[in-house]
Amino acid sequence: MKLKITITLKSIIRLEQLLKKPFGSVDFSDTEQMIPFLYCCAICNNDTSLTLAQFEELCTSPQILSKLYKAFKKESEQLAQFQQYVEGQGTDEAPTYLKDIIPSLILSGGLHPNYVLNQLELCDVPMFFEAMNQRDRSRMESDRLWTYLTMLPHIDGKKLKSPQDLYPFPWEVEAMKENAFNEIDQNEIMLEQFLGGGIKFKKDGK
């Protein structure tokens, strides 16, 4: 039996449902977790009614298991080229079930279910979520601007000089904190240069 092994979001969701654990915590060096993933990759991309027990029986053949592993390795190595890793990502936070967040790409993002489940690759998921976040931020900032302009004739403009003064969003607060820290660092550098004689003041206006 020839089975096509392809890693899709649907196969990942099926794995999470099967193992009852998030994809990020799956140990692929463990045969008891790896074979179910191969199974999910197989049933989601082939016209087959195999059960997990029947698939595990097939995998008792070293020849069949070797072919499945080779197909999976080839697929995963190709996808790994495009996977983006963020420094420190996942070190302090518990892994998230993809089956709980992927539906929002369909319901909130407006993507077609077939594309998300069968064509969208895992490495491209963050790109779509970032686009959704940017869209939502722009919409919220636009709504706040119109609210501010509507209120402006009835409020003291000296106290509320901008829409941000009306209500700063969390990402704006973080940006302000970062700018403040950068300014503090710059001031410290200038102070060190001054104390070390690195800054020369002009004399007699020269």
Keywords, separated by commas or semicolons:
206 residues, 59% helix
Word description of this protein:
This protein has helices at residues 9-19, 31-43, 52-58, 62-80, 98-101, 103-107, 113-118, 125-151, 163-166, 170-195. By secondary structure, the chain is mainly alpha-helical. Helix 1 (9-19) crosses helix 2. The N and C termini lie far apart (87 Å).
Brief description of this entry?
59% of the residues lie in helices and 0% in strands. It is an all-alpha fold and 206 residues long.
Largest sheet: none
Q: Distance between termini? A: 87 Å
Low-confidence stretches: none
Supply the number of helical segments: 10
Q: Percent helix among the residues?
A: 55-70%
| Succession of helices and strands | HHHHHHHHHH
Structural class by secondary-structure content? mainly alpha
Instruction: Tell the overall outline.
Output: elongated
Quote the average pLDDT: 83
Could you tell me the strand content as a percent range? Answer: under 5%
Q: Kindly provide the radius of gyration, computed on alpha-carbon positions and rounded to a whole number of angstroms.
A: 27 Å
How many distinct beta strands? 0
